[in-house]
Amino acid sequence: MEVFLFPLVNVTLFPRTTKPLNVFEPRYLAMVREAVRSQTPIALGFIEDPSKVTAVQPGEKVSFVREIAGFGQAQIIEERVNGTLLVFLKGEGKLRLGKVLDKGRPYIVCEAEIIPEENELLPQLQTELDALFRSLYRWIETHIPDPTQRDILLRNLVEPEEIVGSFASYLVRDYDMQHMVLEFKDINEKVRFLYRLLESGELTT
Question: Which Gene3D superfamilies has this protein been placed in (predicted)?
Fold first, then answer.
C-alpha cells in the first residue's frame, strides 16, 4: 500500500472519526490536492519533538514519526482566498509505516501495511462502553455550542469503534495515551483502558 505522510505534532487520527485540518504549507497543499485527485490515503504521522524532523532518503524508514499511524481519505471543505485549505480527513483504519518511496515529490510517500483490528465487543464490556458514551455525550453537550455540529457528532456515535475513537480524541488530554489507544489492536482492550482512565477521575469531562 502507498500513502502520503502528513507529520503533525501530537495528533492522532482514530478509525471512523474525522479530523479537521488547516493546511497552509505549499508542499502539503500540493499533497492534499494530489491525494484527492488520485484517491491516495493520507497517514497522520505522530511527532513528539518537531526539532527531530530530518530529511529522509528513499529506502529509509521515517524515524521522527511513530510507526503506527491512522490513515484516511482527504476531503477539501473550503479553499480560502489566501490559498489555504480546510480539509476533513476521515479515518479509515490504522497502518504500519514502511520505507520511503522515491517519487520526486516535496512531501513524503511511504510504503505501508494495514493493521487489522478486532472490533467485536465482548457482551460483558457493554456497561463500560455505555459509561464512556455517557461521558462523551456530556462533553459534547457542554463543549460544542452549535446544535447542528452536536447532532452530526452524536449521530455518528453508533459503533464501539466510533465511541472509543471520539472519546480518546476529545476527553483524553495526554497525547501519548491517545496514541496508546490507537496502538491497541482489540476494541475490548481500548474500552478497558479508557474506562480505567474514566474511573480514575483524571479526565476532563
Answer: LON domain-like
